[in-house]
Amino acid sequence: MSDEVRFIDTTLRDGNQSLWALNMKIGAMLPAAEHMDHAGFESMEFFLSVMFKKYVREHKENPWYWLREGTKRFKKTRLRYHGGMHSAFEKTPHCILKLLVERLVAYGLTLTRTSNPWNDYTAFKEEIDDLKKTGMDTVANLIYSVSPRHTDEYYARKAREAAAIKPWRICFKDVGGLLTPERARTLIPVVLKSAGEIPVEFHAHCNSGQAPL
Question: How many of the other CB atoms lie within 10 Å of CB of 84?
C-alpha cells in the first residue's frame, strides 16, 4: 500500500455548485483554468449536467462553450465529469444521458465519479459497464452514514462488493459531513483493506465543519 496522498480539485464543480449555487460564470472560470492546471492536482472535477439548466436559464451562457474552451486550457490535469448514466431527482431519459456522456468523452472527459444511493453494487455494475463502453472510467462512491445498520461490518462488505465490480476507483464519501476523526481512524482502514487492489479516494462535505480534521 502506497503512503502517497494525491489531491482531486473540486473548485470548478463542487465549489461552484455547493458554495455558489453555480453562480460562477464562464468568464470568471476561464482565466483561472491554466493556472489551476499547473497546481499539481491529480485530476479535477470539471462539469455536471445541471450546468445546462443553470447557465442557459439564468446566466444566458452556453455550457458547451465552457466545455470547448475550458478543456483547451488543461494540458496536465485529467478532467472529470460528475454524474452517471442514471438521473437523480429528475427523470432524464437514459438515451439523453448516454448522448451527453458520449459528447463529454469527445471533449476529453474520460473519468467520472457517481453513486448508487443505496450502495447497491449489483445494480451499480450495469451503470459502470455502460459508462466504460462509452469510454468513461468510473470512481464508484461508497456513501457513509450513521445508523445502527452502518457498522464496520457493513462497510467491509460493501467495499468488497464495490471492488468486485471493478470500478476505476472507490470513493469513500461522507456526503452528510457526519464522519468524525475518531470514527475515521477505525473505519477507513476497514474500507482500505476490504477494497483490496482497487485504489480508494476520500471525499467529505463540510456541513458540520469536521472535514478538515
Answer: 24
DSSP string of 150-188, one letter each residue: --HHHHHHHHHHHHHT--SEEEEEETTS---HHHHHHHH
pLDDT one-digit tens code per residue, 111-147: 999 999 899 999 999 999 999 999 999 999 999 999 9
DSSP tag of 146? -
Name 202's bridge partners.
172
Do residues 95 and 65 lie in contact, with contact meaning Cβ atoms separated by under 8 Å? no
**Is 6 in a helix, a strand, or coil?**
coil
pTM of full prediction above 0.90: yes
Spatial contact of 113 and 141, defined as CB atoms under 8 Å apart: yes
Q: What is the pLDDT of residues 23-64, one digit of tens each?
A: 999 999 999 999 999 999 999 999 999 999 999 999 999 999
DSSP 86-103: S-SSS---HHHHHHHHHH
Residue 31 C-alpha cell reads as 482565466
Pairwise CA distance, residues 37 & 11, whole Å:
12
| CA distance linking residue 176 with residue 183, whole number of Å | 14
